[in-house]
Amino acid sequence: MQSGQMQPLTRKELDYIADSISNEDMLIKTLAATAGATQDQAVRQLCMQQLQSHSNHMNTLTQLIQKHQQYAPTQPQ
């Protein structure tokens, strides 16, 4: 097997990625709510910067799942 070849993700890895996506989603929602509720422009700006960072993390995790989807074992119908 070549070292650059992708292998299917294990159930443990998939669970970890799913938990990470869930955590990123919670952080995004919390940051958006905080940014909307604060009167402090510096706090709002920091929240929006962090929101963008966590959105990027979620996109990376989602892309990882999509890239590995073709390697996932199929379930019998």
Gross morphology:
elongated
Give the topology string: H per helix, E per strand. HH
Terminal CA distance: 30 Å
Q: Supply the number of helical segments.
A: 2
Radius of gyration based on Cα positions: 17 Å
Mean of residue pLDDT values: 87
Helix proportion range = over 70%
Number of strands: 0
Structural account:
It is a single chain. The chain has 77 residues and is an all-alpha fold. It has helices spanning 11-37, 41-69. It starts with 10 loop residues before the first helix and ends in an 8-residue tail after the last helix. 4% of the residues are buried. The model has no long low-confidence stretch (mean pLDDT 87).
How would you concisely characterize the structure shown here?
The protein is mainly α and 77 residues long. The protein is 73% helix and 0% strand.
List the helices and strands and how they pair.
Layout: H1 11-37, H2 41-69
Please give a handful of descriptors for the protein shown:
77 residues, mainly alpha, 0% strand
